[in-house]
Amino acid sequence: SSSRDEALMDKRARILSRGLPKQKPIEGVKQVVVLASGKGGVGKSTTAVNIALALAANDSTKEVGLLDADIYGPSIPKMMNLKGNPELTPKNLMRPLKNYGIACMSMGFLVEETAPVVWRGLMVMSAVEKLLRQVDWGQLDYLVIDMPPGTGDVQLSVSQNIPIAGAVIVSTPQDVALLDARKGAEMFRKVHVPVLGLVQNMSVFQCPKCKHETHIFGADGVRDLAKTLGLDILGDIPLHVNIRETCDSGQPVVISQPQSDA
Fold first, then answer.
1. Phi and psi (nearest 5°) for 217?
2. Which of 93, 102, 150, 224 is the most exposed place for a label (fewest CB within 10 A)?
3. What's one GO BP annotation on this UniProt entry (predicted)?
């Protein structure tokens, strides 16, 4: 009967939830937004950095932080033009490094720039836990977390350990990237994290000489995926040299060229 099925499902959910960690907010942080992608190289870190800066630019009364949860390939130090080791507070918490008014924390501040992190999963999880819990974030209205690509340990751990206001999925319109973006969106749904929407990155390239537009990675792939999943498209970002150059030079486009189309 349907009532017996419901009772079984309830029982199963209770048993499964026993093994899950209890969600505990990060001290001083009001809202957590995670930026994720199924595949690497789709511009997730670039988007995360510019979203953090845009949140701060949009309302100067808001305090914004940026956490780089990519242990193997941290990008935030370069993109936010930050170097050095975090100082410790009297409570033995790390102080985030700041630039453009954004408090930043990354594995890149704790290891040499060229040193590879050759760690197994348990050590990575321990590092992520430290970056979340052993940092003096002060009082933040928003903490933007730049996730590593994929749907593995780090994504699950972050989703299950802290309350997340929402996830943003970044993808190019290419079919190969869309397959993984869909998995990312489904993963967040499974762990009950609201997906705020999708960002279509590298959507179109405009020739700087003749202004002809080319859809190098395909057209509207992310829009079609958003329709299929019943999600919003939050932005459509062109493949533009300024976006790449400004991030590589540590002066992201939102802060260095706020009036530009990009």
1. -100, 15
2. 224
3. iron-sulfur cluster assembly
Quote the tokens at residue 96.
């985030």
Element (H, E) at 173: none
Please say if the pLDDT value at position 18 is more than 70.
no
Annotate 94-107 with DSSP letters as a single string: BPPEEETTEEEEEG
Of 23, 54, 37, 33, nearest to 165 (Cα)?
Answer: 33
Q: Domains of the chain: which residue ranges?
A: 23-257
What is the CATH architecture assignment of 23-257?
3-Layer(aba) Sandwich (3.40)
Helical H runs in the chain?
Answer: 2-18, 44-58, 76-79, 121-133, 153-161, 175-190, 221-229, 241-248, 253-256
Quote the CA–CA distance of 71 and 82 in Å, as a whole number. 16
